[in-house]
Amino acid sequence: MDVPKGLAGVVITETKISSTKDSKLTFAGYPIEELKDLPYEAVVYLLWHKNLPNAEQLKTMQHDLLSSMHLPDETIRLMGDIALEPQHPMSILRTMVSLLGTTNNDGKLDEPREILGKMLTTIAAIIRLRDSQPQMQVNPEWGVVENFMYLFMGRRPSKSQVRMFNTVMVLHADHELNASTFTSRVVASTNADFYSCLTAAVCALKGPLHGGANEQVFNMLQEIRHTGVSPQRYIDNKIANHEKIMGFGHRVYKDGDPRAKILRGIAEEMADETNNQPFFEIQEQIASYMLEKLGLHPNVDYYTAVVYHSLGLDESTFTVMFAACRTAGWLAHIMEQRVEACLIRPASEYVGPTDRHVKPVADK
């Protein structure tokens, strides 16, 4: 039996949520290039209902999400206790998502809007706790993205920042059957509650081969800037040592990630607005050299590193921010898997020893 490594190319289900067919990313049939400037709430509605909302539906979606973006004081206290010891923010998020499924949920274990609102607030709270900053409160007059940014930044973002980060959240909202999404569907196929499915997804995202690439991209940019080595020489040294250069290549997109093409412009604009041009300039040199030397294009993680840094985020929080963006897609897939109502139970090919038999233990 020829077993595809990592299930590459194996179709295990049908979906109406998103597609990467022909190296084009679409949500419910709409190209990402046409969705990138829509309100985040509209794209969430699209992923969940497979149609774009009308004005009233969009208003209701926004209201419901904002109404859910709060955490009781007891939850914040417990989060503070969990975060007392130095640990990665993804470890805190993993525990908090599970905790949300057992406390202060008012019986709303399976209401996606309630869950998404709680996830966004939890992630913002983790970022604030990590920086020893007070928690902020939602302003009902603002949109979901602006409120989310306010919750983790501690100040009202500029209109341009909201516009750009709205696009970032849309671009990251879903991406077919990536590792964390597939994990969420496996758990959903057992008919587990939403929080159990999301906890599993966060655990999968925590692994450095899936999440964490944007964090490693920024570490690379910092190292180049601080050491003064040229980006080209840095890349040559990595290649010579057989080390992976994070932020490049993609199993699906061989001619370039369509999300990265959009994010490049956002990274450049945000870098200019926040005086982070040196990081973006290093990125441009690396991207040009990687294409020339190895024929590899940047992926979605590459430019988000500078975007997140420009928003004042520490690189250790980059992956939890990815989780904030991806939760809408995770929830869409959990709902779709539940409707499918089929337990995911693949087969494997046994390649170990055979024809073995237990020998009686000799008496002493």
UniProtKB/TrEMBL annotation:
It catalyses: oxaloacetate + acetyl-CoA + H2O = citrate + CoA + H(+). The keyword Transferase applies. InterPro entries: Citrate_synth-like_lrg_a-sub, Citrate_synth-like_sm_a-sub, Citrate_synthase, Citrate_synthase_AS, Citrate_synthase_bac-typ, Citrate_synthase_sf. One of its GO terms (biological process) is carbohydrate metabolic process. Keywords: Transferase. Pfam families: Citrate_synt. It comes from the Bacteria. GO terms for cellular component: cytosol. Pathway: Carbohydrate metabolism; tricarboxylic acid cycle. The active site is at residues 250, 301. One of its GO terms (molecular function) is citrate synthase activity. Belongs to the citrate synthase family. This is Citrate synthase. It comes from Lacticaseibacillus manihotivorans DSM 13343 = JCM 12514.
